[in-house]
Amino acid sequence: MNGALSFQVIDDDPDFVEIVSHLIRQGGHSVHASASSGHALEDAVQRKPDCILLDIMMPGIDGITILRQLSEMEELSATTIVMVSAKPYDFDQRHALGLGAAGYITKPIDPAVFLNDLLALIRDEVVLQFWGVRGTLPVPGESSLKYGGNTSCVTLSFADGRFFVFDAGSGIKRLSDSLLAEGRTRLDAKIFISHPHWDHINALPFFVPLYLHGCEFEICGPSHGDLTMRELISAQMDNVYFPITTREFAANVYFRNLQEGTHTIGGIEVQTMLLSHPGSCLGYRVNHGGRSWCYITDNELFLPTDARHNKHYVSNLTEFVRDADVLITDCTYFDDEYVTKVGWGHSCVGQVTQLAHDAGVRTLYLFHHDPDQTDDDIDRKTVTVQKALAALDSPTQCVGPTEGSSFTL
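RE: above sequence
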């Protein structure tokens, strides 16, 4: 949604209305204020604003009642409703979001970021961020300064506050540090584990929010035979391997075993697919607001000349990532390297390029780099894929994300 927008503010505090109206007009948008909750519904139906800012505690009809009524009006289906309230309680936020609010902003507002935060909610922005892009083991040193040396960890931050974390390699420690620096000590998040190999779980015990009261996490991933996700995570924190056990978690932590299929997690559709990798390894596809993000690691696409090449599997994977806006996928090896690594459970750039092109992926993000590869190697890998896509006359774009880089969609 671009260009000038129309806003309606429903709030009985004249000072707040004045401040917010000034910020909105300063940003080039129009605003109408409704101080009386009694006339708010009529105003909204008549004006059909792009966004309604709604307080909760008002005389007459309270904001929650108005929200419920507004959400049921078909003529306002295109209007974004955002609660702006002095009530800081989790219950009120969950209640409002459950009734159809797109977001919840707590008073007093910060004028420096208020309008940007509001526009992000209206646009339903989702931020993709990389905290570790390496595979197998961390590689600190001068040869990994550009792309970083941490292993797998990626996040999706939704405008309404929902937060997804994919894998808990050493990159999750950097994520932890960032969250604490921002003062985010009451986090509610979903953590998706692709599989329990060390480079995907070994830094979970160093994720500080797990030890903070007021945080809540659901850790999702594939079970392995009789071993549940709870048991897999607890086992690596057994006192033989680590001095702190899961009993020390102060956050509310839940575990969910996932199979291949379609799930609703945090109110968002998440599809899963078993990948070509030793043990049970899940790929994830997140579908939200007409956009899709795919996280496919670790995964081996055998060469078509190899007897182990499974056309049925490749066809299913191609459909799984079909038309995705984002494909983050294992591209551990150059093609010439792969011939000596066949059967190790990882892919080469040639096969990954073909997959992204055949599936009509919008942007391919290269991920899970071999620990022996330097920054220069990854630069060369990215250029190799970009040239291969160009040779295919493919609309797919290729990005080599660096540790800490973020992309808004």
